[in-house]
Design goal:
This protein has 379 residues and is α/β, with parallel strands linked by helices. The chain contains 15 helices and 13 strands.
């Protein structure tokens, strides 16, 4: 059978999680929390189920949840999106990203992506009949906007950005957003802005959303994730905001892609979001985990890269091993008992930087167990 995605196999996240389970390793590979969500959120969802929110939600999502998203974006970033025409609830961020690509990108178009790049972007672009144009970050995982500008051609349709950035943990700052805005306006491009870690920005830095910059907001689909924000990744509920002309195209694809999103979860989330502190406290919550984990890693031979956001930590293992990143990740899982993700998995053509990614969205006892095992590397 001829494949639509001949270069795609089982994702590295599935491979490493399966190996971790097989070997009884601490899984710091795949990006999911191992702690429970707020019981109040569970109560809200249970109440919604018993209150009868068990049939199809409206195509674009429950009105109360769309209003809550609109209110949050306005309060944090200053842009007011019409909850009826400019906000949609999606079946997670991955579905939102693929839907955005299908809605905006046409066969023969080019889409600029920033490498290392999250693994769903390029397959979505290729399934749309377009071509991904990777632009590598610098050695310190910053975006080189001169290289981005140089990658624009007459075929370029859109730029995909991700901040806070998975896998590097870096953030885009005001100067970055202004540089992106200049490129977008000069060439009439569209933007798909993946902001699922928007509430995990550390050290007092603000999250710079595309919604905050008028020239970007007018040409962007901005993707967020309730699953990442509220520690319920398995619920697969996300949201998008965009100007109504763009959202009209998004809606056309969404209705035949997934149609609607889980109604009970939406109703429960709408109730839970009435208290903004439930997401505003996240930077402090995750910064404590980051600092705890980094303090432990500092006692190993790993070289730590900065972590400005997300719940991921990159480490350079060159002082430990000469293995390739995939080989080292498998060795670390099987011999040391801690699973990680090789950074090479985030490149269209594998690049070897002797770097792996750990997830620290874990209970303190999980991180302690992982650090105890990693301490063997210093022996």
């Amino acid at each position: 059978m001829k494949s639509r995605l001949p270069n795609v196999g089982t994702t590295i996240f599935t491979v490493m999680s399966a190996l971790a389970t097989e070997r009884g390793a601490v899984n710091l590979g795949q990006g999911f929390p191992d702690f429970d969500p707020d019981p109040l959120l569970l109560d809200a969802v249970n109440g919604a189920m018993r209150a009868g929110y068990n049939q199809y939600a409206p195509l674009n999502g429950w009105p109360a949840l769309r209003q809550a998203v609109s209110d949050k974006v306005h309060a944090l970033y200053g842009r007011r999106y019409d909850p009826n025409t400019e906000v949609m609830i999606t079946a997670g961020a991955t579905q939102a990203i693929m839907t955005a690509v299908f809605a905006l990108v046409h066969p023969g178009d080019e889409v600029i992506v920033i490498e290392p790049v999250y693994d769903s972007y390029i397959p979505s672009i290729e399934l749309a009949g377009a071509r991904a144009v990777p632009v590598p970050m610098t050695n310190q995982y910053r975006v080189d906007w001169n290289r981005v500008a140089a990658a624009v051609t007459p075929k370029t349709r859109a730029i995909m950005v991700n901040s806070p950035h998975n896998p590097s943990g870096m953030i885009l700052r005001d100067a970055d957003m202004l540089a992106l805005q200049d490129i977008v306006l000069k060439h009439g491009l569209l933007v798909i802005s993946d902001e699922v870690y928007e509430h995990m920005v550390f050290d007092g830095e603000p999250h710079q959303s595309a919604s905050k910059y008028p020239g970007l907001a007018d040409r962007s689909i901005v993707v967020s994730s309730f699953g990442k924000t509220f520690h319920v990744t398995g619920w697969k509920v996300g949201s998008v905001v965009a100007p109504k002309e763009i959202m009209a195209e998004f809606r056309k694809v969404h209705q035949f892609n997934v149609f609607v999103t889980n109604s009970v979860m939406q109703a429960g989330l709408a109730s839970y979001m009435q208290d903004p502190q439930r997401y505003l406290q996240l930077p402090t919550f995750y910064q404590r985990k980051r600092d705890f984990f980094r303090a432990g890693l500092a006692r190993t031979p790993f070289k730590l890269y900065p972590c400005e956001g997300t719940f991921f930590q990159l480490v350079d293992y060159s002082a430990v091993s000469d293995k390739t990143e995939l080989e080292f990740s498998k060795w670390l899982t099987t011999e040391i008992g801690v699973a990680a993700i090789p950074l090479s998995a985030f490149y269209q053509t594998a690049v070897e930087n002797k770097t792996v990614r750990f997830c620290f969205a874990k209970k303190e006892e999980t991180l302690t167990r992982a650090l105890e095992r990693l301490s063997r590397l210093a022996a």
